[in-house]
């Protein structure tokens, strides 16, 4: 039997049988399809698989689980709110030894008008203390700093099923420096992983990364998050093993002590300083 090899979205190849008596046009069409897919062409009409491949290349994919129906969303948040993250920065001495830096904090202002579903999901996450003890497991200077897989393995597993539908990007909102957005692995796949843009990343706007807030205090703290491990931590292993995996393989990651919703001041800012 004749066979046709196809390059899949994730880079693997699969072979499919074709009847010996298949018309010539069928074989010609298969060759054309292989050439187009193999070229990796991605344009504004990209399929879900092509988009997911691009997201993998950018490294902004969320929880890579089988597709599930988004759960019924709770009542949407409508008012802005502030969240203060208390973090521990880490580093190394001049001799290369691990060291713990002074504690610090940063504040995110959430704007539900930008992303109603995202803002609501984020508020639930904070209320359930999901980010406590979590690590900054992906740090790419000039691009993003990412976190959000719960340290508690049971909670991580539970929340992979609590996906939310996408929000439409509204005019004027973009992934500029300091904005916060959910990571995703395809349409309607946002769960708990989020990232802060280190620079202008407007190129990812069209891919469904809708910002839901902005870092209004302590962006310089996030820029000091330890980047020595870059993108090495495996997110699937974090999902399965939590901090045990990270402590054994990447012991010097900066991490989050706690995160809480705080009151706004009369001037529209959050009270407190960026260092504890």
How can the largest sheet be summarized? 8 strands, antiparallel
**Intertermini distance:** 70 Å
Low-confidence stretches: 1-50, 272-276
Main sheet: which strands, in order across?
A: 5-6-8-7-9-4-3-10
Number of strands: 10
Total DSSP helices: 7
Mean pLDDT: 80
Q: Roughly what percent helix?
A: 10-25%
What structural class do you assign from the helix and strand content? alpha+beta
Silhouette: globular
Q: Secondary-structure element order, as H and E?
A: EEHHEEHEEHEEEHHHE
**Spatial extent as radius of gyration:** 21 Å
Strand content: 15-25%
Features:
276 residues, eight-stranded antiparallel β-sheet, two-stranded antiparallel ribbon, 7 helices, 23% helix, 24% strand, disordered C terminus
Write structural notes for this entry.
The chain has 276 residues and is of the alpha+beta class. It is built from seven helices and ten strands. The protein has helices at residues 24-38, 48-58, 116-127, 153-159, 219-222, 235-241, 243-249; strands spanning 2-7, 13-18, 81-92, 98-110, 138-140, 144-147, 179-182, 194-197, 211-217, 255-262. A hairpin with a 5-residue loop joins strand 1 (2-7) and strand 2. The termini are far apart.
């Amino acid at each position: 039997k004749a066979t046709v090899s196809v390059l899949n979205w994730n880079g693997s190849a699969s072979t499919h049988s074709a009847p010996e008596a298949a018309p010539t046009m069928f074989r010609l069409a298969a060759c054309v399809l292989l050439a187009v897919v193999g070229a990796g062409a991605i344009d504004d009409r990209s399929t879900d698989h092509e988009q997911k491949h691009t997201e993998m290349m950018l490294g902004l994919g969320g929880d890579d689980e089988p597709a599930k129906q988004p759960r019924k969303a709770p009542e949407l948040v409508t008012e802005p709110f502030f969240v203060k993250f208390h973090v521990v920065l880490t580093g190394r001495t001049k001799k290369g030894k691990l060291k713990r830096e002074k504690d610090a904090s940063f504040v995110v202002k959430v704007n539900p008008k930008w992303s109603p579903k995202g803002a609501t999901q984020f508020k639930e996450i904070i209320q359930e203390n999901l980010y406590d003890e979590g690590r900054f497991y992906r740090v790419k200077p000039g691009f993003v700093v990412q976190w959000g897989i719960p340290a508690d393995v049971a909670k991580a597993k539970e929340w992979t099923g609590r996906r939310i539908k996408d929000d439409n990007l509204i005019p004027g909102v973009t992934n500029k420096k300091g904005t916060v957005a959910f990571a995703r692995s395809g349409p309607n796949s946002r769960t708990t992983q989020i990232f802060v843009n280190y620079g202008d990343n407007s190129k990812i706007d069209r891919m469904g990364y809708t910002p839901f807030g902005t870092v209004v205090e302590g962006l310089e703290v996030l820029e000091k998050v330890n980047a020595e491990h870059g993108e090495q931590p495996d997110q699937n292993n974090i999902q399965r093993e939590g901090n045990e995996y990270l402590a054994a393989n990447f012991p010097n990651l900066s991490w989050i002590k706690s995160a809480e919703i705080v009151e706004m001041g009369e001037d529209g800012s959050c009270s407190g300083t960026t260092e504890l």
